[in-house]
Amino acid sequence: GQIAMFRMLIKTACFILANVYPTYCSFKAIKSRGSSDDTQWLTYWVVIQAVTIAETFFNIVTWLPLYYELKLLFVMWLVMPKFQGAAYIFETYVEPVLSMYEPAIDKAAGQALQGDMSGVKSLADDVAPSLDKAAAFLKTHGKEALDQAITAAAAQEAHNKLN
């Protein structure tokens, strides 16, 4: 009864905050003359879609208690410009991972646009083990250890580019 109603209210609020409000803000950003709000909202959309992909592949909703309550707080942190949550997640997690796979993604996307899906299958085969390892690492060692591993990998990549 009441718990189900509360849960539906939280899911609805989460949907509105994650989608409806940012859509309107993106509309306003497109109409504005500056580009900083464009970057802010593009960054948000990349991050929220990464979250959606993670939800789909790792089925987080089924194993994390109070998932929608936590997601609502997380989305608030992402959306509110004063916190710069989307920028932090993008710079710390999303950008390093996408940069690592960028050439393969570009190749697969180009092939897919030509009607050749073999590159997409190859990319999925290449990425799947890494996603499985990342999920297992996160469950075993926690967020802090994942943060440290990503920071170390980014530092190593920056060092390699300089040499």
> Based on helices, strands and strand pairing, what is the structural class?
mainly alpha
Cα distance, first to last residue? 63 Å
Q: What average pLDDT do the residues reach?
A: 86
Record field, number of beta strands: 0
Helix content: over 70%
Unreliable residue runs? none
Q: Which outline best applies?
A: globular
Order of helices and strands: HHHHHH
Count of helices? 6
Radius of gyration, CA atoms, in whole angstroms: 18 Å
* Beta-strand residue fraction: under 5%
Largest sheet: none
Defining traits:
mainly alpha; globular; single chain; 163 residues
Report on the architecture of this protein.
- This protein is an all-alpha fold and 163 residues long.
- The chain contains six helices and no strands.
- Helix 5 packs across helix 6.
- The longest helix is centred in the C-terminal third of the chain and has 45 residues.
- The N and C termini lie far apart (63 Å).
- The model has no long low-confidence stretch (mean pLDDT 86).
